[in-house]
Every structure is written in structure tokens, then in C-alpha cells.
Amino acid sequence: MIMGQSTPTKTATFRRTSPNPCSGYLRPLTKDFADAQYAVAITMISHLADDKDDSELEVMLKSTAFQWLNMAALQDHVAAQFCLGLYHMGGFNLVGFPQDTDKAIQLIFKTAQLGLIPAQLLVASFPTKADDFDFPFSVPVTASTVVKWLSDAAIEGWMTAEFSLGEMYDKGTLGASECPIKALGWYLKAAEHGCAEAQSKVAQFYEEGRGVLANRDKAIEWYRKAAKGE
Fold first, then answer.
1. How far apart are CA 200 and CA 191, in angstroms?
2. What's the CA dihedral at 118, 119, 125, 131 to 10 degrees?
3. Total count of domains within the chain
4. What is the average pLDDT across 91-115?
């Protein structure tokens, strides 16, 4: 195929003479291409999220990223809905974007219910009824649901979930009884995956002899790993 030659497709026609060099490539994204819309939005966000520039161009680009994300979310793209929730919560620190906490939580909770693990882990970090707190937003979640989400994520090797389960058995939260042995088991898994906080917990357990025989050498080994971020 010769560069610049018109190429008929089902979704768009790419022409070298397009007034906007990018318009031909973006045109197919305007309808029923949720994956592509999401990819474009995330690519833009990854370059803009840490940019504090509030110039007219930057604001326009950030607004465009939101539009792509919203377009994908309206087509029930679960990851896009989750990111849109973060967008509304202000998670990307984008200048000039109106935050809407209620809408953010609704989207995040919806994607958690649909099985998106990052959303489940985020919701799991909110206070639950088992903690004697009123749920801070408009969507309730039970302790048993949180435990199931954490367990499912931990089985798949999610470090955050492993550490959270360690804390659950360590402190006796989410309806669980305190169990140093189970707590250490989950802390170890998270520690082996590189979680510095879990490594410090493992060191403390070895130092204090909680859930395991006290072992000063092991404690020092884990403290060193935590300090080095290994």
C-alpha cells in the first residue's frame, strides 16, 4: 500500500490531506470503540496527571482525556468507569475539573460489584459497618463483602489485599478474631511481594514472638529488607 493512498474501511477513511494530521486516526474512536477510547484517555492522563500547568492547552488536553474516558464509560467499559470515578474524586489532580464525590463513589462501587479488583480494594479501604462507622458515602458495603473481595484478590497475588488480610487478623477487624498465626501468614505473603510495611510487620512478629517463635536474626533480616525496600 502506498503512503497517502485513501484506504476505505468500515470505520473511517485515512487521508494524508486531512486538515488535522491526527483527525483521521482519532475518527474511528468516536463510536463503539471503547477499548481504543480508554487507551487514548489513559495515555493522555499518564502524561498529564503530574503536570500542574494550567495553561489553556493543558486544560484543553485534560478535558479531552475526560471526554474519551466518559465515552468509553458510557459503553459500559468497566475500567473506564473506574477511572472516571477517580477522575471525579480528584485522583488525577487535574486542573479545572469539577469534583463530584457522590458520583465518584457510585462509579467506583459499581465497578467493584462488577469484579474489578482495584475498585474492590479501594472500596475495601473505606470504613464498614463492622468498624462501627457510618459509611461515609451513599453506597453501603458489608464486612463480609469486603473480606470476600480481599480474599479473592489475595488469592490472585494482590499485595495490597494480602497486607489488608494480615491487618484484619492482626487487629481483629471486619468481624474476624485476632489470630497472630494467620496475620503473620498474610504479612509474609505481602512481604515476599515487596511490601515494605508488611516486611516491618514480619520483623516485629519475629522480634516479639507473635505467631512464631521469637527469632532475633530473622527480625533483623526483615527489618533490613524493609529499610532497603527490597
1. 8
2. -140
3. 1
4. 76
